[in-house]
Design a protein that fits this description.
2 domains; globular
Length: 191
């Protein structure tokens, strides 16, 4: 076993877990889950069968990841963030195919945020604590509220951009960005 499993964690047969991943107490990983390397999965996390987790992902305490959730590399999920996967939930009536909920590389989801099924949170986006995400959030979007809306733009370093003009932004870390349209920003120069 090339990963760490706390004695009080339950990892069912068939789960794929990468090297140097740490899975802490009272976490339950079902047999179909795929977890990358160098992840840190804290106490009391539940990971269902059709969940894909990339490399270097941090999942804090009290998070449940249901079928259809995909977390790409370097994602951070804050404590008690809630993912859902059924658009029209009813007792004893379950969807056959769950929509894919995708958190793209480098994105962060704050504590107690609620992520509705089928949304995509863009690369390096940041979701504020307690927010309810009902629609897609673009790359580098800083979104918060209920429902969550893009309030500003944020660099991969975690600082907000400063506008140079109506379509170009600069971060204090030296990265610059170009606004392509109302919902799309791309990095044009690295530090």
């Amino acid at each position: 076993m090339s990963f760490f499993k706390h004695p009080n964690a339950l990892i069912e047969s068939g789960a794929q877990i990468g090297a140097n991943t740490r899975i802490w107490a009272f976490t339950h990983v079902l047999g179909g889950a795929m977890i990358g390397s160098d992840c840190n999965i804290c106490d009391n996390v539940f990971i269902e069968n059709q969940v894909i987790i990339g490399n270097r992902v941090t999942i804090k305490c009290g998070v449940q990841l249901w079928d259809g959730v995909s977390l790409e590399d370097d994602v951070f999920i804050g404590p008690n963030a809630t993912f859902s996967n059924d658009r029209f939930p009813r007792s004893k009536k379950h969807s056959v195919q769950y929509p894919t909920t995708r958190v793209k590389s480098g994105a962060s989801v704050g504590a107690n945020a609620t992520i509705l099924p089928g949304v995509t949170i863009g690369t390096w986006a940041l979701i504020g604590a307690g927010s309810v995400v009902t629609r897609n959030i673009p790359d580098f979007g800083l979104a918060f509220g209920n429902p969550a809306r893009v309030q500003s733009w944020i660099c991969q370093c975690g600082d907000k951009f400063s506008a140079i003009d109506f379509s170009r932004y600069l971060c204090s870390c030296g990265r610059s960005y170009q606004k392509e349209n109302a919902n799309n920003i791309r990095q044009i120069q690295c530090q």
